[in-house]
Amino acid sequence: MTEELLVVKNLKKYYPITGGVLGGEIGVVKAVDDVSFTVKRGETLGLVGESGCGKSTTGRSLLRLIEPTAGEVYFDGVNVSALSIEEMRKMRRDMQIVFQDPFASLNPRHNIEKILEEPLIVHGMGSSAERKKRVQEMLEVVGLSSYHARRYPHQFSGGQRQRIGIARALMLNPKLIVADEPVSALDVSIQSQVLNLMQDLQRDLGLTYLFIAHDLSVVRHISDRVGVMYLGRIVELTSSAQLYSNPLHPYTKALLSAVPTPDPDAARERVILQGDVPSPANPPSGCTFHTRCPHVTDECRTTRPLFQDVGDGHFVACHLYKS
Ligand code: SF4
Questions:
Q1: Residue 255, domain member (yes or no)
Q2: Is residue 113 part of a domain?
Q3: Is the beta carbon of 287 within 6 A of some atom in ligand 1?
Q4: Which residues of the chain have pLDDT under 50?
Q5: How far apart are CA 29 and CA 251, in angstroms?
Q6: Closest residue to atom 5 of ligand 1, CA basis
């Protein structure tokens, strides 16, 4: 058994842009552009970046909820990119997703028992009595009660709904959970409860998480390592401790400077990024961050920096990472 549960190699997801008189393809949006990373068993890898940077598309592409344009994804040693639809359906028992908006992802006409039972029915698992028992167990595991099984999604608070979303993801006893902004829609006071629940579940059930968020302070709470995405690419990836104590990429530094710190002496100089995120349909040449980077040089405008390990598994894509 390898240490890595998930290996993602050169993943790409491009969307064609059509137009013109004949409605042909006139360009592509590079939503995910050559992304590679690994996630170890029992680890949480955080993936952060601004809205539209490709982090959610990465999560969905590796689960093949949307089909990637190119690249390979190995899960537990199996190349999932090469699986048939039926083989992939079986593989999804081990690879589940928790969505940002639990309300949108729960069928409002079904009670919780039916919602939670559904994955078991789809995969032909258990008798009716066994499925109902599993529903009761999972409700308790996520901190709800067995009587909640008869209620409907609209009868729950946002935090409770996300607990139901997590219970549904756990019904098939998966190994990997892709958590796509699982607390972004929740009040701050509820966020830490759901994050604590996810950490307890990881410890008790041996889960591996890919945790997607736009907020570095949320990711820090839960991640062993963090990857920072910008315009479809990972620009820095290292341990959580390294990222926060020794960020090397100017974009990471800018994101971190916006995170409030409880220690005023440790307050970072605020870096205000100029301009907006460029369109992924027309990304800048060279380093795609060069239009907003305070340290840009001529080389940055023409040459794409390698995404390289600069020591101890600290990866960064910047020509000036040493300065
Ligand atoms: Fe900035 Fe250049 Fe580094 Fe890109 S390569 S982040 S433009 S210094």
A1: yes
A2: no
A3: yes
A4: none
A5: 21
A6: 318
